[in-house]
Structure formats: C-alpha cells, structure tokens
Design brief:
Blueprint lengths: L7 H28 L5 H31 L5 H24 L1 H6 L1 H25 L1
Helix pairs in contact: 1-2, 1-5, 2-3, 3-5
Length: about 130
C-alpha cells in the first residue's frame, strides 16, 4: 500500500482556523465584549467564558487538523469530529447573532465567510481521504 500523501484541504482549513482564533480573540477583547454589555455580572461572565471557549476550540481544532494532515493517516475520525464541533459552534453563533445581535452580523461577515470556507475545506479533505483510501 502506498503511503498517504499530505492533505492540503486540512492544512488550508487549519490555516483559516488559526486566523479565526486570532481574530476572534483580538476582536472579542477589543470589540464584541465591550459592545455587547449583558445586564448582569453573571451574564457577562457567561458570555466572556463562551467567547474564549470558542477561540480555544478554533486553536485546538487547527492543531488537530495540522497534525492529522501531516501524518497522512487514512482515518477520517479526527477531522470529522473537528468538523462536527465547528459546525455546531457555527450554527449556535448564527442563531445567536441573528436572534439577538443582528448588528454584529455585518461586523463579522468576513469571519462568517471564512468559517464556511473552513468547513468546506474540511469536508473536501474528508472526501479526498476516503477516495484515496478506497
């Protein structure tokens, strides 16, 4: 059996994931957390914790994608789990923004497009890996 080649789609998705982690953290601290002021201290703490959790998820997901892409394994388990977590977070983000903070959608439109592209690259990488494995 021939050795697996590096998965460029996963590397592209990881690059976007790292960019989003940086932008998410930077913009969150300088913009979103200051702009969206929940009424209670508990709500603010919950929002800040959720915000930073999303940034950490993007960072860890990017690391897992790079690791998986460079190892060239035939398994699609890790990228599938990363894609599922990203898709769930993306859905919650969109529902939250559209439902409660529609003005934020215009400010995060580029991030929304990059997130969709990242998910598309992960799915393309999974499909390529499955095609090569068969």
């Amino acid at each position: 059996m021939a050795p697996m080649r590096k998965n460029v789609y996963f590397l592209l998705a990881a690059t976007i994931s790292f960019m989003l982690a940086i932008v998410h953290t930077w913009w969150g601290v300088t913009g979103a957390i200051r702009e969206i002021r929940p009424l209670s201290a508990t709500a603010r703490l919950s929002f800040v914790a959720s915000w930073h959790s999303a940034g950490a998820t993007l960072l860890v997901g990017g690391i897992l994608l790079v690791h998986d892409a460079l190892r060239g394994r035939a398994s699609v388990l890790v990228p599938t789990v990363v894609a599922a977590i990203y898709a769930a977070n993306f859905a919650v983000f969109l529902l939250t923004v559209v439902g409660w903070f529609p003005a934020v959608l215009a400010q995060t439109f580029v991030q929304v497009i990059l997130f969709a592209a990242m998910l598309t690259f992960i799915v393309a990488g999974i499909l390529e890996r499955r095609r090569i494995a068969t």
